[in-house]
Amino acid sequence: MKTPMRFVRNRSVLAGLCIAFAMPPWGWWPFAFIGLGIFYKASQKSASRKQAFFAGFSLGLGWFLPTLAWMWYISIPGYIFTVIFFSCLHGVAELLIFGREPRHFLQPIAHVLVEALRFSWPFGGAPIATLAMTQSNTWFASFGRIGGALLVSYLTWQFAVILFSRFRLVIPCIAAGVLLLAIAPTGENFPGNTKLRIAYVQGGGPQGTRATNTSPRDVVLRHLAATRTLTLDQKIDVVIWPENVVDVPTFSNSREAKEIAQEAKRLNAPISIGVTDDVPPDNFANAQVVVTPEGEIIDRYEKVRRVPFGEFIPMRGFLEALGAPVHQVRHDAIKGKTPAISVIPLSRPTISGDALQSVSFSTPVSWEIFFGGRVNEGIERGASIIKNPTNGSSYRGTLLQSQQIASSQLRAIEFGRSVVQVAPTGFSAFISPSGEVSQRSKVSERRLEIADIELRTGRTWYSHLGDSPVIISLLLALALLLIRHQRKGQGQTSG
Q1: Count of domains for the chain
Q2: Whole-model pTM above 0.90?
Q3: pLDDT for residue 1
Q4: Are residues 238 and 366 in the same domain?
Q5: Same domain, 176 and 245
Q6: Rounded to 5 degrees, what are φ and ψ at 380?
Q7: pLDDT tens digits, one per residue of 141-189
Q8: How far is 265 from 196, CA to CA, in rounded Å?
Q9: Which CATH number belongs to the domain containing residue 259 in this structure?
Q10: Fewest CB atoms less than 10 Å from the CB: which of 221, 258, 410, 446?
Q11: d(CA 431, CA 427)
Q12: pLDDT tens, 315-330?
């Protein structure tokens, strides 16, 4: 009996919704396995290529309509296009494997390759609302130190399918996973368990605002007020401000630079700041700089991975001709050219009593935390901590900010480093190398938190190898399984 398309479509939408609600901010992680199991069973009933495509497409609708809803307040056409585009990719994945066996291996491979594509294309990639984020608080996230978020996504999907189709393999799979994690390096502490006392500063303020209708001076004053509550007796080693909190034509000769230098001198601690300044004739730079207690401005890192349609407009002239609201991003950010690392000099021995001249931070700025490769640039150059200055004040709600915390958790596990995430209006937090979140702020509140962070060294397998081994392995497995299916079909025909 032929299965109605409506049945396959509705079950697929339900499956996608389960994945969505497994993701932050909801975080009901078991729903990811339930949703993937439902989709595996429902998609098996596709009776035509058309049904197969719409099964994958419907999965995407259920998955991305809720998880990308934050885009609605930025660009309604952009939101609709992105949801449809991502859903089409999963439709193509399902179309590719229609009528082919073994489906229980082909389906996870095909759909995770879609995620791999999203990591780099279009416009430099958009690894948001990924399957790995559903597992940021679970045992599955530990596999990130072996193969990154893509391996976490693949193992989550494959394990879900095994649960629903080959249950006898569950125990062997868990045993193999435990053995693999036991031998995979996690990084290690500095000799002597060296610690750095870090203060993050969240100035607070209204959420859902744009730079064009916000006073840059007010943002600075909020962060200065919070910083002034710190005292010299607290023995802070480094103070970290968020992204974009100083927006001036030229930072070096600005009033804000002098005010921050006074605070650095008072605390006898360097302050890391997010600066937006002009790059003539019509661009701007999104930079991280450090102000020392001596008043020097050093260590400028300019963001490389810019947010498409947020910090630059792809195809600006074409879109403007179509009447798109490109005026909302009047100027494009320049693309930085240096690795994502900051070297911050220390004015005195650390809180643990160790005399270090400087500490290196991997410094993915905001959007860059979603890309493991940006973080690894700092790790492979000796960074012992990850700092993620960000700015989520333009977004309403907490969807994107929650996903960013999940991304920071994954990056902490992948590289065996603590992460300091700090935003002007939230979320800010400290994240341990095992992915545990602490001292997390609320949205819009003024918050200042201090933590003693262990400096870490060593590199994980993922840090050494990156995403390529996982992508190549999945492509090879897909090709071999499709060839095997084709040969098997030819053998049956000839027989």
Answers
A1: 2
A2: yes
A3: 47
A4: yes
A5: no
A6: -70, -10
A7: 999 999 999 999 999 999 999 999 888 888 888 898 999 999 898 888 8
A8: 18
A9: 3.60.110.10
A10: 258
A11: 12
A12: 776 666 666 666 666 6
Q: What is the DSSP letter of 459?
A: -
Instruction: Write out the two tokens for 11.
Output: 């079950």
Q: Using one digit for the tens of pLDDT, what is the confidence trace for 193-243? A: 899 999 999 999 988 776 666 788 999 999 999 999 999 999 999 999 999
- Give the pLDDT mean for 349-366: 95
pLDDT tens per residue across span 381-402: 999 999 999 998 888 888 999 9
Amino acid, single-letter form, for residue 422: V
Beta bridge partners of 419: 386, 431
Position 276, amino acid: T
* 247: pLDDT strictly greater than 80: yes
Scan for tokens 């870090």, then name that residue: 198
The residue that leads in pLDDT, 439 or 190, is 439
Burial per residue of 216-252, b for 16 or more beta-carbon CB atoms within 10 angstroms, e otherwise: eeebbebbbebbeebeeeeebbbbbbbbbbbbbeebe
Query: What tokens were used for 407?
Result: 């991304």
Is the previous residue joined to 281 through a cis bond, with omega within 30 degrees of 0? yes
- What is the C-alpha to C-alpha distance for residues 354 and 350, in angstroms, rounded to an integer? 5
Q: Is residue 87 domain-shared with residue 226, that is, in the same domain?
A: no
The residue segments making up the domain with residue 73 are 5-185+466-494
Residues 281, 201 share a domain:
yes
Which residue is listed with tokens 């007010």?
A: 218
Which residues neighbour 331 within 8 Å (Cβ) at sequence distance 6 or greater? 282, 283, 284
CA distance 71 to 53: 25
Q: Residue 114 in 3-state DSSP?
A: helix
Q: What is the pLDDT of residue 23?
A: 96
Residues 418 and 335 in one domain: yes
- Quick check: 17 and 62 in contact, CB under 8 A? yes
The structure tokens listed for 204 are: 């607070």
Q: Report the DSSP pairing between strands 271-279 and 246-247.
A: parallel
- The answer to whether the CB of 425 falls within 8 A of the CB of 393 is yes
